[in-house]
Amino acid sequence: MFESLSHLALQQYWWIIISILGATLAFLMFVQGGQTLIYQIGKDKDERTMLINALGRKWEFTFTTLVTFGGAFFASFPLFYSTSFGGAYWGWMILLFAFILQAVSYEFRSRPGNVFGARTYESFLFFNGFIGTILIGVVIASFFTGSQFSLTDMNETRWQSPLRGIELLFSLHNLSLGIAVFFLARTLGLLYFQNTIEDENISQRIRKQLWYNAIPFLVFFLTFVIWLMLRDGFAVNSETGKVFMEANKYFNNLIEMPLVLVIFLSAVLLVLYGIAISLFKNSNGGIWFTGSGTFLAVFSLFLLAGFNNTAFYPSTYDIQSSLTIMKASSSHFTLTVMSYVSLFVPFVIAYIWFTWRAINKKKITKDELKSGEAHFY
């Protein structure tokens, strides 16, 4: 079946898979967002324990998706992996270290004999939520703004900045998306708490914090998108493979790919609707609308970056070193074998959905906390 597809068709298929995984990761970042709100929503030890346990039941989904996303990217587009990780390794190492701290914190926060105290691990969770969200947003933004690297004839990476990826944080356009992802993750975290925890005091604080996080998210996200639509983009000549700058490239991509435009506009409406029903109708279901909108928005951004003859990992130092899905992909054979493995993805999604529903079947309450029946993080 897959072996009959052209190499280009397989490359496009795997870019869609990567886009789905990246979009799923963006939705699951509500865990990171929630971790930055523990002390703003929880005013005593019991309330903070409720919040952390609500997130603790889901943090492994985020961690696993991150690993899967990275592994799939490495296998399908290895030149991106070697270029980015080989060049911008300080940025990636900080991000990975932040996620290691998260895993350690959930494992040891409430263990007997914890000599560092719960607050130390709660600080680690905040660090993971703050650094993790901003860095991931900045990395996604660099798919449009570019990085300072060049490739030799043997595809050896030569990163031109001694900061090795940290310099991406000095771009205002990159930061606009990084900060937007930070506030989006916090907004999703609030909506998840609202859906999962049954406590009137916490619910009141959630509604208040929604205003403080949803509005900055919208401001920074609109700044990023409007800026993106107006800037020149990295286009690729379909016949020669040469990369060149095209005015309003990403706006042109939206117009020339109407399905992506519909997906993006639907995403915006879903995000706004989920926030609105939570604020004005006190609904507990906002996470599903805003979460679905987040998935579709990030999915459409990945398609904008990689499809319609666009360089998805551009170089601002040597434009011809920019990576496209054609240039950066694995061989036809490798992509074919991987495509058969990808047929198991629906079963994995079904398992995650079943597990999610089973875990969230009963809302977290203070009575459950006092009973001591459940596992606590």
Descriptive keywords:
single chain; 377 residues; mainly alpha; two-stranded antiparallel sheet; 17 helices; globular; electron transport; oxidoreductase activity, acting on diphenols and related substances as donors, oxygen as acceptor; transmembrane helix; cell membrane; metal ion binding
3D structure, described in words:
With 377 residues, the protein is mostly helical. It has one domain (2-371). It is built from 17 helices and 4 strands. It has helices at 7-28, 30-35, 38-41, 45-56, 59-76, 78-87, 89-108, 118-145, 172-196, 200-230, 249-256, 258-280, 286-306, 325-328, 332-341, 345-359, 366-371, and strands spanning 149-151, 157-159, 233-236, 243-246. It has a two-stranded antiparallel ribbon. It has a two-stranded antiparallel sheet with strand order 3-4. It starts with 6 loop residues before the first helix and ends in a 6-residue tail after the last helix. It is a multi-pass membrane protein. This is Cytochrome d ubiquinol oxidase subunit II. Keywords: Cell membrane, Electron transport, Heme, Iron, Membrane, Metal-binding, Transmembrane, Transmembrane helix, Transport. It is found in: Cell membrane. One of its GO terms (molecular function) is oxidoreductase activity, acting on diphenols and related substances as donors, oxygen as acceptor.
Strand content: under 5%
Radius of gyration: 21 Å
- The structural domain count equals 1
Largest sheet: 2 strands, antiparallel
Helix content: 55-70%
How many extended strands? 4
* Cross-sheet strand order for the largest sheet: 1-2
Give the number of helices. Answer: 17
Termini separation comes to: 46 Å
Question: Oligomeric form of this entry?
Answer: single chain
Subcellular location: Cell membrane
Family: Belongs to the cytochrome ubiquinol oxidase subunit 2 family.
Transmembrane segments: 12-38, 59-81, 87-104, 125-146, 166-189, 210-230, 250-275, 287-307, 333-354
Protein name: Cytochrome d ubiquinol oxidase subunit II
